[in-house]
Amino acid sequence: MATRRQAAHDTGEDIWNRVENAGEAGLLTKQAMGRNTRGQFEYGKAWIKDKKCKSEKKGWVYHHGAYIITVDPNKCTLYATDRLRSLYRQAQRIYNCSIAILPPEAQELPTVRLLRTECENIFAAMALLEAAGFSPQAAAKGAEAKPKVNLSAQPQDAKSLTCNTAYGRFGGRPVKVIGRVDTASRESIR
Asked: 172 — alpha (psi -120 to 50), left (phi > 0) or beta?
């Protein structure tokens, strides 16, 4: 049996309509797929995430085993957190299997330094979430409880000042994240 070709737009619209009609209960994967093949379903989901969510101003989430179209902040943040956790783990695996294992002389190659820095930037960007066990609620509370920095003690000629510091872990190794603030805006963060 030959699979009928169709554009990602058509597949995405088909999937979106089916899931939207199911309401907040959503649909299991097999039901959401409908007559589409697995490949068509994946292309359709990508189109939904890239185009349809923006135009409809609604979220497309996989929540407790079902695809749902929603604007519920709890469902959307849970989905986003799960995806970010997955991306973080993928970055760890990439780093561990292809960058960290290189010998010291290879670590100094420009391409390796660049990729190592980019991986470290990913770890740093996710340090607060990772330290909170990928709980957006705990991470948000931690972000709100940032210590105030006394910038008046800093020299006036400094181009930038270190203010926000967060800590996380990567493979048992501590990661320190430091934010920078221009001295011109120091009054606004006291």
From this structure: left
DSSP H or E segment with residue 83: helix 73-94
**Backbone φ and ψ of 148, nearest 5°:** -75, 145
Residue 173, token pair as written in the block: 């190794």
Rounded to an integer, what is the distance from CA 1 to the centroid of its chain? 39
Q: What would the pLDDT profile of 10-58 be if each residue is shown by its tens digit?
A: 999 999 999 999 999 999 999 999 999 999 999 999 999 999 999 999 9
Report CA-CA distances (Å) from 104 to 94, 99, 101, 107, 112: 18, 11, 9, 5, 11
> Strand locations in the chain, DSSP E?
59-63, 66-70, 160-170, 173-182
Asked whether the whole model's pTM tops 0.85, one would answer no
Report the half-sphere exposure of 57 (CA within 13 A, side-chain side): 0
Burial class (CB in 10 A: 0-12, 13-18, 19+), 188: exposed
Number of H-type helices and E-type strands within the chain: 9, 4
CA distance 64 to 29: 11
